[in-house]
Amino acid sequence: QVQVVESGGGLVQPGGSLRLSCAVSGSIFSIYKMGWYRQTPGMQRDLVALIDNGGTTTYADSVKGRFSITRDNAKNMEYLQMNSLKPEDTAVYYCYAQIINGIYWGQGTQVTVSS
Fold first, then answer.
1. Is residue 47 a contact partner of residue 58, using CB atoms and an 8 Å limit?
2. Who wins on pLDDT, 85 or 54?
3. Which is the most buried residue in 1, 2, 106, 112, by most CB within 10 A?
4. Is the pLDDT at 90 greater than 90, yes or no?
5. In this structure, are residues 96 and 37 in contact, taking their beta carbons and an 8 Å threshold?
6. How many CB atoms lie within 10 A of CB 79?
7. What is the model's pLDDT at position 42?
């Protein structure tokens, strides 16, 4: 069984920073892509950032220059450093892992940016 668990969400003021972490465990043979998506009530789940097994990254236009995605292949973990946060960044953030035998999602972690 594959498990995907996020952590690091919380409440932060505009302009502040948070670091999200995601741990992937279980029957893992290899991980091709890891990433983060986010979703607000009534809206679809949208891409925030992706990183492949060679370190190539992809970012949504709305977060370029503010967010940074990294991964630790030895530990099967990924991270999202979120700086200069804006109220419109408020959402549930979901960890994504594309493994050789399927695609897996975490349960989500709430990020709220408010004064």
1. yes
2. 85
3. 106
4. yes
5. yes
6. 17
7. 87
Token digits of residue 20: 């999200």
Tokens in use for 17?
């920073």
Mean pLDDT of all residues belonging to the chain? 95
- Amino acid in position 113: V
What is each CA distance from 92 to 37, 70, 97, 101, in whole angstroms?
8, 19, 17, 26
Side chain identity, residue 57:
T
38-56 burial: b if 16+ Cβ within 10 Å, else e: beeeeeeeeebbbbeeeee
Question: Coil, strand, or helix at residue 7?
Answer: strand
Single out the residue of 84, 92, 72 nearest to residue 14, CA to CA: 84
Assign 26 to helix, strand or coil.
coil
CA distances to 69, 92, 104 from 100, rounded to whole Å, are: 21, 26, 11
